[in-house]
Amino acid sequence: MTTNQVLTGMGLILVLAVGSQLVAARLRIPALIVLLPVGFAAGALIDDVAPARLLGAAFSPLVSMAVAVILYDAGLGLDLSRLKGHTRRVVVRLICVGVPVTGLLGALLAAPLLGMSARAAVMIGAILVVSGPTVVGPLLGFVRPKDRLQHILIWEGSLIDPVGGVLGALVFHAVLAGSRRHLGSGMAHFLASMGIGVAGGAVGAALLWVLFRVLRPGEVLGTTAQLAAVIGVSAFCDVLRDDTGLIAAVMMGLAAANLRGMDVPARRPFFETLVSLILGLLFVSISATVTPQSLRHVWLPALGLAALLVLVVRPLVALVSTLGTELTRDERGFIGWMAPRGIVAAATASTFSAALVAEGIGGAAKILPATFVVITATVTLYGLTAAPVARRLGVVRPSRSRPLLVGGDPWVVDLGVALKAAGLEVLMWAGEEEQRERVRRAGIELAPGELLGAATGGAAGLEGITAVYLLTAEDDFNALAAVLLRGSVEGTVHRLDAPADSQGVVAPFIGGEVLFGPELTWPVFARRYEEGAAVLGRPADDAPRPGSELLFLVRRDGRLDPVTEGGAPQPRPGDTAVLLVPGVRDAEGPPL
Residue 333: which residues within 8 A CB-CB, separation 6 or more? Predict the structure, then answer.
């Protein structure tokens, strides 16, 4: 290819990847629904969009390294100590029972449907066990199921990606080992590959430990160093033995997230941006390699395989995994209707299929197009039906707001009590034990002790929170927490404004939408409380006491609208006004 063709092809792939993600975000649908057909159409219609031609022999290694980065990032989000409570039992079963059952049944179904050999069928069965948070998360964000279901499905998706990546690598090497003339040499090859992957993961974990504990670089350089370590270790492992780098990358991510002494930064904006870009580029590139000719004799049996996975295999896995648990029949039904396939399935199919074809394994050429069809079918089906199915089963979370109030001063606790009395499910967090005890005495649920870790640490963070209100006396904490929490909750992040004469480091300049305007800062609330003011809820139709200031409106349907520096919401019939009312209590007494 000429230089102009390479430039045109690379530019088109990048524009199509990011453009598809923008369109999907605008439409509030999973990006896969747009990326897959766009990539397939581009590969079929535009000769320059052909990754194998653009990159030649470099395409497969680049896919392997990109998947390694994705799996490392997925591992970083898995703090296993947080998997507890009522979700643990179901999630563990979905992984420990669901993965082998799905892989086995997928292989048994794929062999006759797709007309492939047993080894190729075992490979595609292992590939199709994965789901992943990159596709499950957006679906759940749109459907808004009950918290319990949200926790279970997010944890399953987050755990099954690295588990599926490891399983895919293991099965790949087992299939190659089984194709050798002598069993002994095949087993030696398999064990050598496993040893290299595990050793590479251990070396990579040691490098990360040195990075985080000894060198302690800044956020930008530290993120770049992580990327270099993951790619370097996985590439070196792949040089020694094909595709062992995936095992090393997963181990590195899990080690960084779970080993003591690892001080991984809570925010990874560059890494998150890079992973998002990689996802788009991979889906467009891999879809472009699927030609209409390769689908001609595969698409119909692959649709049959997808239908059996959706209608038989997943419901069976959900039934077995939820037996004897406290989940209702409708909740179990929704778990049985949520298993879309995602990027790891596409990338592992692209990575492994070419090597298996080169080994002459029967039907290996059908692995990638069949996986493409299954991904497209499951994502489209679940994307279009998940919301109506959830409504039909009655497992949709109520539309009422669920705010998180950060702070434990008396006026903040009274605000929580007023919002709870208005019918909202209120969650609070406070750092000092005295403040936390005050929250407990008020009968309000406390958030986990490590607020920022809960919000930025991945799967079991603050799902279900619709808005965060930062109301502590520390203006810098409010501003910095707003930056960290932004994007971790479904709604907005608000904070108190800093006083005009504030000498804070960052508070006047960054972070979050400002509550109440510049005149109602924390010192003002504290002073007015000392003078006998109180935070109370009243019907919005009632005339407020003179001197009262509106803080929030709780709408009739349970939505919470705050007063911000941009203006105050307008009350409507049936709303509840939450007000700062002067002179309604003694300085130390309860509201009158």
Answer: 318, 393
Condensed to tens digits (0 to 9), the pLDDT of residues 382-425 reads 888 988 999 899 888 766 677 888 888 888 899 999 998 888 88
Q: Is the pTM of this model over 0.90?
A: no
- Name the maximum alpha-carbon separation found in the chain: 91
Which residue has 């099954």 as its token pair? 160
One-letter-per-residue 3-state SS of 433-462: HHHHHHHHHCCCEECCCCHHHHHHCCCCCC
Would you tell me how many other CB atoms lie within 10 Å of the CB of residue 492? Answer: 15
CA distance 123 to 356: 9
C-alpha 94/C-alpha 158 separation (Å) is 12
Kind plus residue range of the DSSP H or E element containing 494: strand 493-496
Supply the DSSP string of 320-360, one letter for each residue.
HHHTTSS--HHHHHHHTT-----HHHHHHHHHHHHHHHHTT
Dihedral of CA atoms 287, 288, 292, 298 in degrees, nearest 10, equals -30
Q: Is the dihedral of CA 284, 290, 292, 297 positive or negative?
A: negative
Q: Which two tokens stand for residue 152?
A: 């279970």
Q: Do 493 and 471 contact (CB within 8 A), yes or no?
A: no
Residue located via tokens 């689908």: 295
H or E segment to which residue 477 belongs = helix 475-485
CB distance 209 to 256 below 8 Å? no
- Alpha-carbon gap, residue 156 to 98, rounded angstroms: 10
Q: Which residues contact 58 (CB under 8 A, 6 or more apart)?
A: none
**pLDDT digit string (tens) for 518-540?**
778 888 888 888 888 888 888 88
Residue type, 494: H
Q: Are strands 560-562 and 534-539 parallel, antiparallel or unpaired?
A: unpaired
Q: Are 383 and 30 in contact (CB under 8 A)?
A: yes
Burial of 394 (0-12, 13-18, 19+ CB in 10 A): exposed
Residues pairing with 404 in the sheet: 427, 468
Q: How far apart are CA 579 and CA 28, in angstroms?
A: 35
User: Which residue is it, tokens 């990847």?
Assistant: 17
| 133: Cβ contacts below 8 Å, ≥ 6 apart | 74, 77, 154, 157, 158, 161, 459
Q: For residue 241, what pLDDT band results from cuts at 50, 70 and 90?
A: confident
Q: Percent of the chain at pLDDT above 70? A: 84
Which residue is it, tokens 């990048």?
14
Element (H, E) at 78: none
Task: Please give the Cα distance from 466 to 462 (Å, whole number).
Answer: 9
